[in-house]
Structures are given as C-alpha cells and as structure tokens.
Amino acid sequence: MNKKPLGYGALFLAIALLPFLGVYPIFAMKVMCYALFACAFNLLIGFTGLLSFGHAAFLGAAAYGAGHAMKVWGFPPLVGIAFGTLMAAVAGLVFGLLAIRRSGIYFSMITLALAQMLFFYFLQAPFTGGEDGLQSVPRGSLLGINLESDSALYYLVLAIFVFGFWLIYRTVHSPFGQVLTSIRENEARATSLGYDAARFKLMAFVLSAALAGLAGATKTLVLGFATLTDAIWTTSGLVILMTLVGGMGTMVGPIVGALVIIALENKIGDLGQWLANLTGIQWFTGLGESVSLVTGLIFIVCVLAFRRGLVGEAGALWERLRKTENAR
C-alpha cells in the first residue's frame, strides 16, 4: 500500500487544524501561498531541470491581474483568481516560446531579462499604482460566506493550496511527468526516443507559470494588495532559496523551505529579542533588521552541508537506517 497519499492527507489535516492551535491565520495563509509558489517552481527545476531566474514575473502578473479584476471590475474572488492565473499562464507561454529553445545559463538569463522587462512595465503602468502598489483589494464573498473573516478565507486558501499540490503530484506521477524526468536526466536520449523535448518543456513551463500565478492571485486575496515586491528579481531568488532549503525534486521540500524562510522573515525579530534576553548580548536585538544576512547564511550552509535540502537529507538518512536495519 502506498503510504505517501496518507502522509499528504495527514499533512493537510494538520494544516487545517493550525488556527485551532493558536497559529495566526494570516501567517499560515501567507506560508501556503509561498509554498504553492515554491512547489510550482520545483515542478520546473526539480522535475524538468529548467532553472528560471524570472519566476516572480508570474507571481506578480497574477497578483496585479487578480487585484485589478477584483477591485476595479468587481470580479468575485474565484473568478478574479482564475483571471490572474490566466494572465500568468499567458505570460508563461510568451516567456516559454522565447526562452525554451535555449538551455543552461542562456535559458536562465533570458527568463531574468524578460521578467525585468515585465517588472519595469508594472512600475510604469497606471493600473498597478506604481511604487505604492495596488491597495485595498476587497475579499468579497463566496456562496454567501463573507471572506473578510480570516477563518472563512483560511479554508478557501487551504483548498486552493491542496488543489495546486494535487495537480503537481498528478503531473509528476503521470506519463507526461515521466517524460519530463527523462528530459531532465538525458534530453538527447529522450529526443532520440521520439519525444519533442521543446514541446514538453514548454508545457511544463506554462503549467509552472500558471501555478505560480495561482499562488500570486491567492496572495493578493489574502493580503489585500499587490506590490512591485511580487515581481522583483529578489523574489525569484527567494523562491530558489525556498526550494533548495526544503529539498529540490521532492514533493514536500518546497513547503518546508517556504515555511522556514517566511518564518524567518516574520519571526526573526522575536527570536533575536529572545536570544538577547537569554544571553544578555544586545547584538541579537538587531537580527530583525538582518533577515537577508540570516537567509544568506542558511543558503551557504545548505549548499555546503545539505545539498539535498532538509527533506532530501532526512529522506536519505531514513533510507540508510532502513537498509541497515534490513541487513541485520
């Protein structure tokens, strides 16, 4: 019996219970949005072998698209999210058609260049609000349920997150996903077997962009705004960091990575104050202003000591222990 679906079910049940355990719903919803973003990115790099330096463009495109649709055009929440996701998919198709026939660093740099072009468009376009961003996006209601309530919105975001994760899981474990893995391992051999590698990579790129957009549109619904931070290149770096820290090429790794990074961004100030009170060293009180320094150190440690990420290393350790036990 495959135990993985049961494990995923237990994980989602635990997430559903978080508000009852005292976890702030907005924080948990933000983690789920970025976890979905990281899972979408992992579909591209972890299972297809394509490193995009511009994935924040899809998060930003969907965030602005959904925010504008819900605030200005009065779209219902789910329609607004679907519209934002469609915008990201279209952007992904355009990016993919231009970049997918290049490989390695050339592919990565083209995605970065295109993302920067989109960023400067968002900076100057009148509907985005420029440097102030698109503010006060209404949550609206769904089937008569007022989504202004954090509790009601929490379970909608959880449903979207589970749907996105399920779609990635089914994709990875389908014949299409197996072709993507074969392209990652040996593209020339996959091509010699008759697969159109460029077409499969383009499909994976568009799917990844759409799922990143689903995360961005949902984030706008949760936080009520979309800003340039959603589309800037540092956000593309952040999702790479989340994936590497959690475990590239694993299903749960990006979720763990997103949790670690978002928790650091939001809680490192409290941790620094706690360390200062514990040790009497006032330097720790400045940790809250040094998030980039801390995440950079974590990145270095992961590259040097945990190349498979937290989940990847834990899985490898479990496998070694299991083999040792069977050998006795």
Reconstruct the topology from this structure:
Elements: H1 4-17, H2 25-45, H3 56-71, H4 77-99, H5 104-124, E1 141-142, E2 145-146, H6 150-172, H7 175-185, H8 187-192, H9 197-223, H10 233-246, H11 253-279, H12 291-305, H13 309-327
Antiparallel strand pairs: 1-2
Structure notes:
The protein has 328 residues and is mostly helical. The chain is built from 13 helices and two strands; from the N terminus they run αααααββαααααααα. It has helices at residues 4-17, 25-45, 56-71, 77-99, 104-124, 150-172, 175-185, 187-192, 197-223, 233-246, 253-279, 291-305, 309-327; strands spanning 141-142, 145-146. Helix 3 (56-71) runs antiparallel to helix 4, helix 3 (56-71) runs parallel beside helix 5 and helix 4 crosses helix 5. It is globular, with a radius of gyration of 20 Å. The relative contact order is 0.17.
What's a quick, concise take on this entry?
The chain contains 13 helices and 2 strands; from the N terminus they run αααααββαααααααα. By secondary structure, the protein is an all-alpha fold.
Q: Could you give the order of the helices and strands?
A: HHHHHEEHHHHHHHH
Nearest-integer average pLDDT: 88
Distance between the termini: 24 Å
Q: In which order are the strands of the major sheet placed?
A: 1-2
Portion of residues in helices?
over 70%
Rg from alpha-carbon coordinates? 20 Å
Number of strands: 2
Which oligomeric form is depicted? single chain
Count of alpha/pi helices: 13
Percentage of residues in strands: under 5%
Low-confidence stretches: none
Main pleated sheet: 2 strands, antiparallel
Structural class: mainly alpha
| Morphology call | globular
